[in-house]
What we know:
Layout lengths: L1 H18 L6 E3 L1 H9 L5 E4 L7 H17 L2 E3 L4 H7 L8 E4 L6 H11 L2
Parallel strand pairs: 2-3
Antiparallel strand pairs: 1-4, 2-4
Pfam families: Ribosomal_L7Ae
Protein name: Ribosomal protein eL8/eL30/eS12/Gadd45 domain-containing protein
InterPro entries: Ribosomal_eL30-like_sf (IPR029064), Ribosomal_eL8/eL30/eS12/Gad45 (IPR004038)
Amino acid sequence: MIIGMCSRLSSLDVKRKETGRGKVRLRMGFREVERGLRANRIVLVVLAGNLERGEKIEEHVGKIVDEAGGRGVKVVRKWNARKVGKMVGKKVKVSVVGVENVEGAEGEWKKIKKILGE
């Protein structure tokens, strides 16, 4: 369900870039997601489960998990980086995705919130 929602939001984001109108729906990358969490815009974080071990990566993951927990944002850590990249329409590995705007996938978002217990 999360995969379907992220795929839908990704395709809508591509259309937004082509037309130049609308709001950003997804943020990818550690710094972008951290920035979105600090601005209180992220509603869901999808974090890859197979991240490489390293001091900086663990520092970023810790910041994201702490910030999300403090703001009541759910963190899903289930898929590997390749699968996370595919679900947002990328051909490369993506370590973290922040869902910022669910406009266009409200039905899936309601189901996901129900499953996650919100």
